[in-house]
Amino acid sequence: MKDLKQFDIPFVGLKEGSHLFTYQIGKKFFEDFQYEDFFDADIRIALEFVKKSTFFELLFTATGTVHIPCDSTGELFDQKIEATLPLLVRFGQELDDENEQVLILPHELYQLNVAQYIYELVVLGVPSKRIHPKVLDGTMESEALKRLRKLEVTKEKTADNADPRWDKLKDLIK
User: Fold this and answer.
1) Helix (H, G, I), strand (E, B) or coil at 151
2) Residue 61 CA to its chain's centroid (Å)
3) How many CA atoms are closer than 13 Å to the CA of 134, on its beta-carbon side?
4) 141-164: per-residue pLDDT in tens?
5) Do 125 and 83 form a contact (C-beta atoms < 8 A)?
6) What is the pLDDT of residues 31-58, one digit of tens each?
7) Bridge pairing between strands 102-106 and 8-9
8) Using H for helix, E for strand and C for coil, what is the string for 107-144?
9) How far is CA 136 from CA 32, 35, 73, 142, 143, in A?
């Protein structure tokens, strides 16, 4: 995680008011967190950092795509990501990150690393059920589907291979 220094925000030298930080996130960012569910990523993070005299307001906005496998077919596709995360940062005696919306930093800190919040924003921004768009609109073509169509049982095939001992039961249905 030593490569995440670019996500340090030295807030001691910042003037009060609004500041904008932008980051471009790729696959390497998630490899640093040892997260291997994304085969690729192209995400832009905009962080609006509002410094006030006693606290900070942060608003993370993520837009982009991650290259992931479909849960139904296993085919890779680009999943769009659009997510936001508000965070309030206050100061106290010791670090307290139990509340997901309020972070309490010790008074002696002079910078904040936002990499963990960006990571959580993107990972939680991916839908829990990942379905390829072509599956949803019915245009999906894959090797697995082609093989399943070959093996599909049709009524004609079952009628030819029907066991004559069961014919009497068909009369009961009528």
Assistant:
1) helix
2) 13
3) 13
4) 777 667 777 887 765 555 556 677
5) yes
6) 999 998 899 999 999 999 999 988 899 9
7) unpaired
8) CCCCCEECHHHHHHHHHHHCCCCCCCHHHHHCCCCCHH
9) 33, 27, 12, 14, 18
CA of 45: how far to CAs of 18, 82, 117, 120, 147, in Å?
A: 16, 10, 11, 12, 42
Alpha helices in the chain (DSSP H): 27-32, 115-125, 133-137, 143-151, 155-160, 167-173
Residue corresponding to tokens 């599956």: 135
Given the structure tokens 């999943």, which residue do they identify? 79
Q: What angle do CA 38, 40, 45 make, to 5 degrees?
A: 90
- Nearest CA to 33 out of 147, 144, 120, 145 is that of 120
Tokens of 29: 């960012």
